[in-house]
């Protein structure tokens, strides 16, 4: 039997982060922080379930990185070539002298794409990465 009673727990965070979160709560129209946290947790759990499945998905891997990082461009290219069947398109943007943004559009089994995403995002020189995914209905 599922326990649907509300449980309380504490969350600690830096003041500046809490101020930004409170602004988000207000902008999105939540009545309180708890509602916003519940939605964030639900979203994270749905994403995790989807990302770990064999279900066909389409999505994107967004990478921000320093292109001066030694061997990073070669590693990014090699990883992508090894799974070329998952990659639909790649777009590269030069943000400034050092920073690049790369958007990789992907389609395939969720688990395979998640593994690629982890490998790319964890490379030395990648400052930020984000994997987004949506289910693809089989025709």
Features:
single chain; 139 residues; alpha+beta; Arc Repressor Mutant; Alpha-Beta Plaits; four-stranded antiparallel sheet
Order of helices and strands: HHEHEEHE
CATH C-level class of the largest domain: Alpha Beta
Largest sheet: 4 strands, antiparallel
Number of helices: 4
Q: Outline, from the CA principal axes?
A: globular
Overall mean pLDDT score?
89
Structural class: alpha+beta
Word description of this protein:
By secondary structure, this protein is α+β, with helices and mostly antiparallel strands. The chain folds into two domains: 15-51, Orthogonal Bundle (Arc Repressor Mutant); 56-135, Alpha-Beta Plaits (2-Layer Sandwich), CATH 3.30.70. The protein is built from four helices and four strands, in the order H-H-E-H-E-E-H-E. The mean pLDDT is 89. A four-stranded antiparallel beta sheet has the order 2-3-1-4.
Summarize the structure.
With 139 residues, the chain is α+β, with helices and mostly antiparallel strands. It has four helices and four strands. The chain has two domains: 15-51, Met repressor-like (Arc Repressor Mutant, Orthogonal Bundle), CATH 1.10.1220; 56-135, ACT-like. Chain A, domain 2 (Alpha-Beta Plaits, 2-Layer Sandwich), CATH 3.30.70.
Write the layout of secondary structure elements.
Blueprint: H1 15-27, H2 33-51, E1 56-66, H3 72-82, E2 87-94, E3 99-109, H4 110-121, E4 126-135
Antiparallel strand pairs: 1-3, 1-4, 2-3
